[in-house]
Design goal:
The chain is α/β, with parallel strands linked by helices and 224 residues long. It has helices spanning 4-10, 15-35, 55-79, 94-107, 123-140, 150-154, 202-214, and strands spanning 40-47, 82-86, 114-121, 167-170, 189-192. Strand 2, helix 4 and strand 3 form a beta-alpha-beta unit. The radius of gyration is 18 Å and the shape is globular. The relative contact order is 0.16. Bound molecules: 3-methylbut-3-enyl trihydrogen diphosphate and magnesium ion. The site of 3-methylbut-3-enyl trihydrogen diphosphate has 12 residues, from helix 1 and strand 1. Residues 1-6, 45-46, 50, 61, 172, 197 line the site of 3-methylbut-3-enyl trihydrogen diphosphate.
Length: 224
């Protein structure tokens, strides 16, 4: 979800207004995913690198997250959304942490769209965390190093219950991954659009999915 700041700047508004508008896009896109029968969506809301932003901006982003958690739980139950967070939330305020965990708990048996928020998420941190957990188990004798394969590794990632993404969309014309799901995106189709996140809507999502449907996924096999 990129381009909130530029959206605001273009309109002569403070960056925070861009984030506010971006949070409306989240609701719109989640709605569109349900209509389009998408099963999983993961939104990169706050990266491990975003702590470098000003205190003010971080505070505003946390505030928006808080509002989202307060206002959306009812809606998630109504729509059958399963809510999940990936990332290390231990650095978040106790209040936010409580709301996140209770949101996950409340919605865990829902069977509709799985909505994943990446919060204080960084792929390198996630991979290192998995390495530490596995190393620990090796030391305890619970895992033999020779048996560590992709499956074992995957089970130690934050995304253990989530399939690898089919499609990755990045808005606002930036063409990079920025530490997002590096392991999981090995065979993901990438889609980049100039549209700024606050302007992104159902039509843009449909366009991305149409483009995705024209791609041939070979996973290393020869062309048909
Ligand atoms: C998205 O917009 C930000 C987050 C989800 C944290 P940006 O804040 O990166 O917007 P630009 O790149 O300044 O336009
Ligand atoms: Mg940006």
């Amino acid at each position: 979800m990129d381009g909130n700041g530029r959206w605001a700047k273009k309109k002569g508004l403070p960056r925070i207004k861009g984030h506010f508008e971006g949070s409306k896009t989240v609701r719109r896109v989640v709605e569109a995913c349900i209509e389009l029968k998408v099963r999983y969506i993961t939104l990169y809301a706050f990266s491990t690198e975003n702590w470098k932003r000003s205190k003010r901006e971080i505070g505003a982003l946390m505030g928006l997250l808080n509002n989202f958690l307060n206002s959306e739980l009812n809606n998630m139950m109504k729509k059958g959304i399963k809510f999940k967070v990936i990332g290390d939330i231990s650095l978040f305020s106790p209040g936010l942490r409580k709301k996140i965990i209770s949101g996950e708990k409340h919605t865990k048996d829902n069977t509709g769209l799985t909505l994943v928020l990446a919060l204080n998420y960084g792929s390198r941190a996630e991979i290192l965390n998995a390495v530490r957990e596995i190393a620990d188990k090796c030391l305890k004798g619970d895992i033999k190093p020779q048996t560590i394969d992709e499956d074992v590794f995957k089970r130690h990632l934050y995304t253990k219950d989530i399939p690898d993404p089919d499609l990755l969309i990045r808005t606002s014309g930036e063409i990079r991954l920025s530490n997002f799901l590096l392991w999981q995106c090995s065979y993901t189709e990438f889609y980049f659009t100039e549209v700024l996140w606050p302007d992104f809507g159902k039509d843009d999502l449909m366009e991305a999915i149409m483009e995705y449907s024209r791609r041939e996924r070979r996973y290393g096999k020869e062309r048909a």
